[in-house]
């Protein structure tokens, strides 16, 4: 806000300075995430190239088509740079983003970053006609959470280190493992900002331990 | 399950889900495909969605005849073959075709001027469907009429099947200019604006307040090269539809992607380049690189040379 942050990531934020959080902007609803971040006191930065990750305090992998995103990650060592970034910085994936973060992807099997100890099944609930908005209880403060599911994936298994913050019919829908968060739904499409606020807090505490 | 009732409120559950899927397609490329192999090439090349149809616009234009919804068997095969969303076209006003497409599990229905219109006065009541619809528009009034009928995505019409981007540009500029004008009008003036645009006052007012359409605004109709895609994105398109630009060789002859490895390679190079250009639309260095990688381009048809009666964009009311 008032002063520019040193470009090196992991540096401490100065008084009044906003955490700079990247949004992978290859394709998808990255603009909705940027809006949500700005509303939660972070500065959103669009990321289309691997070198643009430098200096960012955290990253969001948005909803969209994971197969399209993987095409781009397959070029210019983007995949490896992103994998390293995600294992050392706070990162939050929604829908396609959650698929990219998983340890294993099914239906069909595809490459993933493997930074979240979870197995994710793509298009697990059917096609667009089966998309739905549900409300479920959550570990986040403030009562039940609206969850917008669009051609949603399902988390079919999680490791012991993964905390489940909300569920859809028993399956984890919002999870956290250390500084990594993932949702099989789209909090960026709801007016409730609690999920983004929780992620911004993870980022803020990572830069200001 | 999503509710099935015709919810006409923009904040209603059904419409939120419809627009939600359109949001997921932003920044990407939706490719027309006529068979399973083309659908696979599209997915491999990074398309966010495929549009299943029997003949691409360039062929419809050349061959004539009545252009209808694609055969259910073709649509089913394509749904089976790819993991990305599958769209299909219904004729303007042909709600029975749309009912069939919804039943088949198509993710988005394009009520399209590329097919032969089935109704010369009425478009489909899109609120009556759970499946989202995309519709073409040449100006703001047309876009808002389609949104009033329940469209969850608008695309410029351009002039499909020509490979000439001039009308896509014209329509995008027109829509964005008309939206900008609304933002500086007074509240009083908005009533007359609604009358001029022949669009519902509530939607006119919404655009006046936000400066944009209440649903995503994509571009289609004549986009044939990576530079065309970048041009439309810089003009304000939120994603790109490519029809005949990827799989056509001569005017009405598709590349033989099933039997000729060289022609398959050519289609892949075009598809990949347009996908890259749509994401990196503001990066001339990358645009130059990807443009260089393209082998061959659809020959195309100058839209200025078309007779009024040959235009597809004038269909729809």
What does this structure look like?
The complex is a heterodimer of chains A (209) and B (317). Chain A contains 5 helices and 12 strands. Chain A has 209 residues and is α/β, with parallel strands linked by helices. Chain A has one domain: Class I glutamine amidotransferase (GATase) domain (Rossmann fold, 3-Layer(aba) Sandwich). In chain A, the strands form 3 sheets. In chain A, strands 2-1-3-4-12-11-10 form a 7-stranded mixed sheet. In chain A, strands 5-6-9 form a 3-stranded mixed sheet. In chain A, β1, α1 and β2 form a beta-alpha-beta unit. Chain B is α/β, with parallel strands linked by helices. Helices cover 43% and strands 11% of the residues of chain B. Chain B is built from 12 helices and 8 strands. In chain B, α6 links the parallel β5 and β6. In chain B, α11 runs antiparallel to α12. Chain B is globular. Classes of the chains: A alpha/beta (209), B alpha/beta (317).
In short:
The complex is a heterodimer of chains A (209) and B (317). Chain A has 209 residues and is an alpha/beta fold.
SSE diagram, text form:
The complex is a heterodimer of chains A (209) and B (317).
Chain A: E1 20-24, H1 30-39, E2 43-47, E3 58-61, H2 66-73, H3 78-88, E4 91-94, H4 96-101, E5 102-106, E6 116-121, E7 132-136, E8 145-149, E9 154-158, E10 163-168, E11 171-177, E12 180-183, H5 194-207
Parallel strand pairs in A: 1-2, 1-3, 3-4, 4-12, 5-6
Antiparallel strand pairs in A: 6-9, 7-8, 10-11, 11-12
Chain B: H1 13-24, E1 29-33, H2 36-44, E2 49-52, H3 57-63, H4 72-81, E3 86-91, H5 95-104, E4 108-112, E5 133-137, H6 140-148, E6 153-156, H7 166-184, H8 187-197, H9 201-210, E7 217-218, H10 226-234, E8 240-242, H11 261-279, H12 284-293
């Amino acid at each position: 806000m008032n002063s520019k942050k040193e470009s090196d990531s992991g540096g401490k934020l100065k008084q009044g300075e906003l955490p700079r959080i990247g949004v992978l902007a290859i394709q998808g609803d990255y603009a909705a995430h940027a809006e949500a971040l700005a509303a939660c006191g972070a500065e959103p930065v669009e990321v289309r190239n691997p070198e643009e990750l430098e200096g960012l305090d955290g990253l969001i992998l948005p909803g969209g088509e994971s197969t399209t995103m993987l095409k781009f990650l397959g070029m210019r060592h983007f995949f490896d740079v992103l994998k390293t970034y995600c294992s050392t910085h706070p990162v939050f994936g929604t829908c396609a983003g959650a698929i990219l973060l998983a340890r294993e992807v099914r239906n069909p099997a595809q490459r993933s970053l493997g930074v979240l100890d979870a197995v994710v099944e793509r298009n697990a609930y059917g096609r667009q006609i089966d998309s739905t908005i549900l409300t479920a209880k959550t570990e986040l403060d403030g009562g039940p959470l609206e969850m917008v599911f669009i051609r949603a994936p399902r988390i079919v298994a999680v490791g012991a280190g993964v905390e489940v913050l909300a569920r859809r019919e028993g399956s984890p829908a919002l999870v956290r493992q250390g500084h990594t968060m993932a949702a099989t739904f789209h909090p960026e499409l709801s007016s409730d900002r609690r999920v983004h606020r929780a992620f911004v807090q993870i980022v803020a505490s990572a830069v200001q331990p | 399950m999503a509710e099935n009732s015709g919810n006409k409120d923009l904040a209603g559950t059904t419409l939120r889900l419809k627009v939600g899927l359109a949001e997921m397609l932003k920044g990407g490329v939706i490719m027309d495909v006529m068979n399973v192999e083309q659908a696979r090439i599209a997915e491999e090349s990074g398309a966010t969605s495929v549009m299943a149809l029997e003949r691409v616009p360039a062929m419809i234009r050349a061959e004539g005849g009545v252009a209808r919804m694609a055969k259910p068997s073709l649509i089913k095969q394509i749904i089976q073959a790819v993991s990305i969303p599958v769209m299909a076209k219904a004729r303007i006003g042909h709600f029975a075709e749309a009912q069939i497409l919804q039943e088949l599990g198509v993710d988005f229905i394009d009520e399209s001027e590329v097919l032969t219109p089935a109704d010369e006065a009425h478009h489909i009541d899109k609120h009556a469907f759970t499946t989202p619809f995309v519709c073409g528009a040449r100006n703001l009034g047309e876009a808002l009429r389609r949104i009033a009928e329940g469209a969850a995505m608008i695309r410029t019409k351009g002039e499909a099947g020509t490979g000439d981007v001039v009308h896509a540009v014209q329509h995008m500029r027109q829509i964005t200019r008309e939206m900008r004008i609304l933002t500086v009008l007074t509240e009083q003036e908005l009533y007359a604006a609604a009358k001029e645009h022949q669009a519902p006052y509530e939607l006119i007012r919404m655009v006046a307040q936000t400066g944009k359409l209440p649903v995503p605004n994509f571009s289609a109709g004549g986009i044939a090269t990576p530079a065309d895609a970048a041009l439309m994105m810089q003009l304000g398109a939120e994603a790109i539809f490519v029809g005949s630009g990827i799989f056509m060789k001569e005017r009405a002859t598709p590349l033989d992607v099933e039997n000729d490895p060289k022609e398959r390679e050519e289609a892949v190079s075009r598809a990949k380049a347009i996908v890259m250009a749509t994401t990196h639309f503001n990066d001339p260095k990358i645009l130059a690189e990807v443009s260089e990688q393209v082998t061959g381009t659809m020959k195309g048809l100058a839209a200025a040379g078309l007779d009024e009666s040959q235009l597809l964009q004038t269909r729809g009311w």
